[in-house]
Amino acid sequence: MKRILSLCIIVMSFSVVSPVKAAEEKGVELADSAKSAILIERDTGTVLYEKNSQEKLPPASMTKIMTMLLIMEAIDKGDLKFDEKIRTSDYAASMGGSQIFLEPGEEMTTEQMLQGISIGSANDASMAMAERLGGSEEGFVKKMNEKVKQLGLKNTKFQNPTGLPVEDHYSTAHDMSIMAKELLKYEKITNFTGVYESYLREDTDKKFWLVNTNRLVKFYPGVDGLKTGYTNEAKYCLTATAKKGNMRVIAVVFGAPNPKTRNAQVTKMLDYAFSQYMTHPLYERGVILKKAPVSKGSKKTVTGVTSEPISVLTKKGGLAKDFTRSIEMDKQIKAPIAKGEEIGKLKIIKDGKLVVESPIVAKEKIEKASWWELYKRVFGMFTQTN
Questions:
Q1: Is 61 a catalytic residue?
Q2: CA distance 327 to 40
């Protein structure tokens, strides 16, 4: 689709880092005991280190990153509320592995279910939320794989929302980092994933203590997520995120031999990122960028906003350079438009090269105009002309 191009040249005191595998170029080994790994900066997506990052492997409970992403996306669109009570089916209650021991027919709010999923890696809560959003496990898995395609991921396929072992269920370190990047657009998620311990059913005789399976939340300053994973086949896995100052990074490890080694590998990657790089924020999520005309909508224009935090990444002590920001809105935007629907692109360009590209999304929902609204519009134009 053709776009209208609007350029604004901004002088910035940064030396922008190109999206290259910086650590690998220097011969730095950060994850020698993992089957695969990747380290990225969240806002730009710049790869700072990778090892076998495209190798298809079982993700175990890191699968729940996609489950949480679809939950947060539904909340953001207004299709789900934190205080909505979710009923547990017989099937959801029957899930094995990590669980919060939901009983058939038991109800918990979305917020409580998210606590169970993010802190305790609860398979029963994951399935209950999947059935609420997809109508069934199969319906939710379809949504999971549709989101995989939407994100442009080539080496991920889900068969369930939990990560319990099943044939033909796989992902990669690269793909998992992109799912984590997308999930972290929703800043409230770290209110759950960053909690080390909490309680469910606190005022009942079935009080349940949750302790985060990601021990780095307690022992590494700045870590506030995201999800561990373990099965006999997958071994020990972790997608971790940490923030220091303005910089947030994501580190993914697949197939470490034990929890201690897994945490040590992630710690090494986080240490490297924070010692070598820094980010400079340009926009927060939800900042208004531009209005664009809407064809046959209940409103004549739609407001385009940033879909995520936007930053530029530099080496520590970078030199002053220039770059441009480009706001490109879709040329033909037709109603109906969903809140959060992509309607353009924001690009950050340095020396003619694209260093950041991010969707511009609709701030509000725009319904299709009724025939009466369209008639009044046309009639108004006719009377003005005459």
A1: yes
A2: 25
| Choice among 121, 126, 177, 358 that is catalytic | 121
Q: For residue 310, which of 319, 291, 323, 293 has the smallest C-alpha distance? A: 323
This prediction has a pTM of: 0.86
User: For the residues 218-230, what does the mean pLDDT come to?
Assistant: 97
| Nearest Cα to Cα of residue 240 among 223, 265, 262 | 223
Q: Are strands 36-41 and 47-51 parallel, antiparallel or unpaired?
A: antiparallel
Enumerate residues 6+ apart whose C-beta is below 8 A from 99: 120, 122, 123, 124, 125
Tell me how far apart the alpha carbons of residues 376 and 67 are, in angstroms, rounded to a whole number. 45
Q: Which of 36, 53, 61, 126 is catalytic?
A: 61
Cβ contact 37:270 at 8 Å: no
Instruction: Measure the CA–CA gap between 150 and 152, rounded to whole angstroms.
Output: 5
Q: What is the pLDDT of residues 333-347, one digit of tens each?
A: 999 999 999 999 999
What are φ and ψ of residue 293, in 5° steps? -70, 145
Active-site residue (options: 64, 143, 147, 181): 64
